[in-house]
């Protein structure tokens, strides 16, 4: 067996020219292997949403042919599958579903003393710590709106978010005639992962389908943007520039780790991200587009340093 480790080795493995490379790394550290896989001509099965959020055009410019990215994030896989029902010009809106996380229905006041243990208790999915905390703050949904807009070339104002606590409808596409097509299945990542690897073909018996022999309720409710401001913040970044979305993600990564280390209170996570964005806004608007991966890394480095300073000063 050959064991390889370290950042350069991850990039080298991604660049090996496999038919499909699945990127399931957490964080924007996943961008360079994504770029390496695309440049090598591999199909990229992408769970690492941070590649899209932090990399912006750097990711898409690395493609050697159209449609080289197979979305694996469950919502984006659902949209990708639903988009088979019509053309891009026929799409009216994308509707991204959110579980609402463990604190759905709470006011901000009732979220002041949340502990890492409480926030790591996702109601429907078993996932790694960073994405689980992001689901609880709804920052995951903010990142996913950015991801959807860029993957499917749909502007933010035509992407809705609806809270669906059962996580059965993984997202939907509304078409111009009023039809809505969704992809539904019990929450199980084996399905989008398998499709990401096998597309355009479907494999047999990957995961359980919905059970129609017992009564079930699927509910949908609006997102409470006051209690969960992360989606609005992400939309503002998406409208502003690709540098804003990279800063959003980098500051959030620092804040989530600080919360998990008990150096930051729960409400401080999104608050810190907002403060970093406010501090860097003028600078980002002055040069909104990345000139290179090094430029992206420098931008992220500053965002992380500013987030760390805000966290340390609290
Ligand atoms: N879990 C899920 O259901 C879903 C996850 N995603 C996305 O997929 C990604 C992974 O999530 P998840 O599997 O939950 O996270 P986990 O924390 O369970 O796993 C993260 C993986 O990333 C690896 N990793 C972290 N840092 C580095 C690094 N610097 N270099 C190489 N590898 C690294 C870890 O390796 P090691 O173990 O060696 O530390 C680990 O294998 C995230 O972007 C998440 O948002 C999207 C949809 C669903
Ligand atoms: C499984 C998956 O794709 C996660 O990103 C999931 O979306 C998290 O669920 P919520 O963010 O909706 O709570
Ligand atoms: Mn998701």
Automatic annotation (TrEMBL):
Its cofactor is Mg(2+); Mn(2+). 1-deoxy-D-xylulose 5-phosphate binds at residues 49, 74-75, 99, 122, 135, 140-141, 144. Mn(2+) binds at residues 73, 75, 144. Belongs to the DXR family. Its EC number is 1.1.1.267. One of its GO terms (biological process) is isopentenyl diphosphate biosynthetic process, methylerythritol 4-phosphate pathway involved in terpenoid biosynthetic process. Keywords: Isomerase, Isoprene biosynthesis, Magnesium, Manganese, Metal-binding, NADP, Oxidoreductase. NADPH binds at residues 10, 48, 50, 128. The keyword Mitochondrion does not apply. InterPro entries: DXP_reductoisomerase, DXP_reductoisomerase_C, DXP_reductoisomerase_N, DXPR_C, DXPR_C_sf, NAD(P)-bd_dom_sf. This is 1-deoxy-D-xylulose 5-phosphate reductoisomerase. Residues 2-56 form the 1-deoxy-D-xylulose 5-phosphate reductoisomerase N-terminal domain. Catalyzes the NADPH-dependent rearrangement and reduction of 1-deoxy-D-xylulose-5-phosphate (DXP) to 2-C-methyl-D-erythritol 4-phosphate (MEP). PANTHER family: 1-DEOXY-D-XYLULOSE 5-PHOSPHATE REDUCTOISOMERASE, 1-DEOXY-D-XYLULOSE 5-PHOSPHATE REDUCTOISOMERASE, CHLOROPLASTIC. SUPFAM superfamilies: 1-deoxy-D-xylulose-5-phosphate reductoisomerase, C-terminal domain, Glyceraldehyde-3-phosphate dehydrogenase-like, C-terminal domain, NAD(P)-binding Rossmann-fold domains. Pathway: Isoprenoid biosynthesis; isopentenyl diphosphate biosynthesis via DXP pathway; isopentenyl diphosphate from 1-deoxy-D-xylulose 5-phosphate: step 1/6. Residues 185-305 form the DXP reductoisomerase C-terminal domain. Residues 69-152 form the 1-deoxy-D-xylulose 5-phosphate reductoisomerase C-terminal domain. It comes from Bifidobacterium choerinum. Pfam families: DXP_redisom_C, DXP_reductoisom, DXPR_C. It comes from the Bacteria. It catalyses: 2-C-methyl-D-erythritol 4-phosphate + NADP(+) = 1-deoxy-D-xylulose 5-phosphate + NADPH + H(+). One of its GO terms (molecular function) is 1-deoxy-D-xylulose-5-phosphate reductoisomerase activity.
């Amino acid at each position: 067996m050959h064991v390889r480790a370290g950042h350069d080795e991850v990039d080298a493995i991604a660049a090996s020219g496999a038919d499909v490379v699945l990127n399931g790394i957490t964080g924007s550290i996943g961008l360079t292997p994504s770029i390496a896989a695309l440049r090598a001509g591999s199909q990229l099965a992408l769970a690492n949403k941070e590649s899209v959020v932090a990399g912006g055009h750097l990711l898409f410019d690395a493609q050697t042919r159209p449609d080289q990215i197979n979305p694996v994030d469950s919502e984006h896989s659902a949209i990708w599958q639903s988009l088979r029902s019509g053309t891009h010009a026929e799409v009216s809106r994308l509707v991204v579903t959110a579980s609402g996380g463990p604190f759905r229905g709470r006011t901000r006041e009732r979220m002041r003393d949340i502990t890492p243990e409480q926030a790591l208790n996702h109601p429907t999915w078993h996932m790694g710590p960073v994405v689980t905390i992001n689901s609880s703050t709804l920052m995951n949904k903010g990142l996913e709106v950015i991801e959807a807009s860029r993957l499917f070339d749909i502007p933010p104002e035509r992407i809705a978010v609806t809270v669906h606590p059962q996580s059965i409808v993984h997202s939907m596409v509304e078409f111009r005639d009023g039809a809505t097509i969704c992809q539904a299945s019990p929450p199980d990542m084996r399905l989008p992962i398998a499709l990401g690897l096998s597309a355009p073909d479907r494999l047999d018996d990957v995961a359980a389908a919905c059970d129609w022999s017992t009564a079930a309720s699927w509910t949908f409710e609006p997102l409470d943007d006051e209690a969960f401001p992360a989606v609005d913040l992400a939309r503002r970044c998406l409208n502003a520039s690709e540098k804003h979305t990279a800063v959003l993600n980098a500051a959030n990564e620092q804040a989530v780790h600080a919360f998990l280390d008990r150096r930051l209170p729960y409400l401080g996570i999104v608050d810190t991200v907002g403060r970093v964005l406010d501090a860097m806004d003028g600078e980002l608007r002055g040069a909104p587009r990345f000139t290179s991966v090094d430029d992206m890394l420098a931008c992220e480095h500053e965002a992380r340093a500013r987030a760390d300073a805000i966290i340390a000063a609290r």
